[in-house]
Specification:
38% strand, eight-stranded antiparallel β-barrel, single chain
Length: 164
């Protein structure tokens, strides 16, 4: 009787330890329809990368430039991504330096990390923050300024946008 009990326990252990079937995670997310629409800047943050690398406190590394220039708030800026792959911008009184219109695409359709804006011979690449926020109607553009002689990043800008 003990042998049968041992065999039953061993059999149950072997059967119980079979690997589970990995479920399908579904189709890759198509971010283009989520990006389609008008987006407006809610904040514009400048980071001193050198100070950040030295672990300086936030007040010494980060500066909110959203409303620093009276009469030229960055919240005036809007960009509209159309489903047909075109875009338009409304600069307002902000100091944004983006093309007024043209076509847009992702740098990689499956795993986008940047938006490519094109108008004729001119091309601008806008780095993206987390695309998980796009689902919530939020998005971040990233831009880095490098030293010409060393190529080292000195300043990083983050433009936070919300979908209208």
């Amino acid at each position: 009787m003990k042998k049968i009990l041992v065999y039953i326990i061993a059999l149950i252990s072997i059967v119980a330890c079979q690997p589970d079937e990995i479920p399908s995670i579904g189709e890759p997310t198509d971010y283009k329809p989520m990006l389609t629409g008008t987006w407006q800047i809610t904040s514009f943050i400048q980071v001193d990368v050198d100070a950040e690398s030295k672990s300086f406190p936030a007040f010494a590394t980060e500066k909110d430039l959203t409303n620093v220039f009276p009469e030229h708030s960055y919240t005036d800026f809007k960009i509209t991504f159309n489903a047909d792959g075109t875009f338009t911008t409304e600069i307002g009184s902000s100091y944004m330096d983006l093309m007024a219109s043209g076509s847009w695409s992702f740098d990689d359709e499956k795993y986008p990390s940047a938006i490519i804006l094109v108008n004729g011979d001119e091309t601008q690449t806008i780095g993206l923050g987390s695309l998980a926020d796009v689902v919530l109607g939020k998005m971040s553009f990233k831009e880095e300024r490098k030293q010409k002689d060393t190529g080292k990043v000195k300043i990083r800008y983050t433009y936070n946008l919300e979908k209208n």
